[in-house]
Structures are given as C-alpha cells and as structure tokens.
User: Fold DUF58 domain-containing protein from Phyllobacterium endophyticum.
Amino acid sequence: MNDKGTSIDTTALILLKHVATNARQNRNIRTQSMPGPIAAKRRGRGSEIDDIRVWTYGDDIRTIDRNSTARTGVPHVKTFREEREHTTLLLADFRPAMQFGTRRAFMSVAAAEILALSGWRATDAGGRVGLLAIGGTEPLLIRARPSDRGMLAVISALLKAHAFSLDLQSAEPVLSLDTVLRIAAKALPRGGTIVLASNLDDRGDQFEDAVRLVLHRCDLKIACISDAFERSAPAGIFPFETRNGVRGVRFVSNKNPGRKRREEMLQQIERLGARIVEFYSESDPEEQINALDELHGRHG
Assistant:
C-alpha cells in the first residue's frame, strides 16, 4: 500500500463533490416523477405545521384539522411552512483499529471518503453538515454549516483529526462508540441525521442503549467499513503488534467464524432501527455509490 492510502488527500475529498453530484443527476433521471420521501425542490406548501386557525372561504378543505374542528365545533385548518434545513452530523472513527488496511487504503481513509460523499450529498440537497471525529484524546466537533463552505470546513477537520490520530503515541484508552454516540446525539438538533463511518470495533457495553437514544432524537445511518483481509483471511497463524507494543499471534481457521459474528452484529443493529450498510476499504469511492444509495435511500 502506498502513502496515499494511509493519509487523507484533501483535494480528492473536495473532488468527490462531482461524484456525488453526478450520482444525484443519475438518480433523478432514473426516478423522475416517482414518489419519494425527499424532493430536490419544493413545489408545494411545505409540510411543517405553522399554525391552526379558523377556516375561511377559499381554504383547501384537505387542510382541515379534525381534532380542532371536533373540539370547537367550528372548522379549523392547518397552515404550513417550508421545512428547516436538514442537519447531518458526520461521525468519523479514526481510532487505532481503523488505521489498518491490506489493499488500497486504511479503513480510516475509506471512512473519510464515505463521509465526504455523504456530506456533499447532503449539501447538494440544501442541508447543513457538521463533523464529530474521534481518534485522539478528545473528540473534534465542527458545528453544522450550509453549502460548500460547510463541507470545506468538514474536510479540513477530517484531515486534521486523521493526521493527529496517526501521530498519537498515547497509551490512554480511546472513547468507545456508545460514549461517542451520546455526544453526537447532544450535538445534533432533533430530526437530523447522524452518519457514522466505523468498523464498529470497541462499541462499549451500552452501545445498544446509545443507538436507541440516538434513534429517539434523529436518524442513524452506519457505514460499516471492512478490510478484505478481515472478510476472507486465509487459514493460518498471523503475528500482530498493537500500537501500544502488545504482541501476539492470531489463528484463523477456514471456517472464519469472525465473519459470521460480524453478520449477526449487523443484523442486530439493523433490528434496533438503524440503517447499516457494509463498505469495502479496497474499493474506490466511485465504486461505492450503490452502497451509498442503499445507506441513504435512493431519494435521500
């Protein structure tokens, strides 16, 4: 693997805007005039209720509020306003277990690419994007901002956080994912979306409770990053050394029980209500568009 695969390329992440835009245009061609949960431009009255008032001549009868009408005996209608900008918080896992890869790139680099695509996708739809990156001794939080300016701030922070995590020599324990999810939930307005890119290592004892907490406030989408060696390691004995200097050997059998446990974990998280899709660190970002569509929904 070359140096490019071990560090984040800022220019490459910026250029992914065109990949995200082209993917959206292709989706629009395929799904033009089809119903879906998210539209590129609003042509209606909006869907957030602004007020409930007495019906007057000319009001659309479809907007009559049954509860208020029944309670007062006088027809009342709902008025609407445009939705607020949707807020997306990108959650980057740059902890030591993500700084590994046997083909093309570290899983941490692949995570940054997937998050950049997700961020450009969100801003392209008119939303706001922020970042929470973990890997150092303290998480790095960038508040959500709109447009290209917001994404450029996110990309700059991705570069900073990843470089810091690579240089970190501290033996201090890193944050578990359950703790990080709780931090993310507090940093995001209700109704927003958290996009987590991680191999889901060291989830913490309260991970499922943290997922439920997040889902009570917002959507949770997980890009589960995996390396080819983890998915299909040949049988054998493999020596290893951690960044803290711990050495050992790992035995891998032909049955690869780790893969089965991983699939069970993904299914369990999905049952909690989160959307989770597996991404391969050996694949270029352009090859991940179908998986990205699956993660965000064809119309999202």
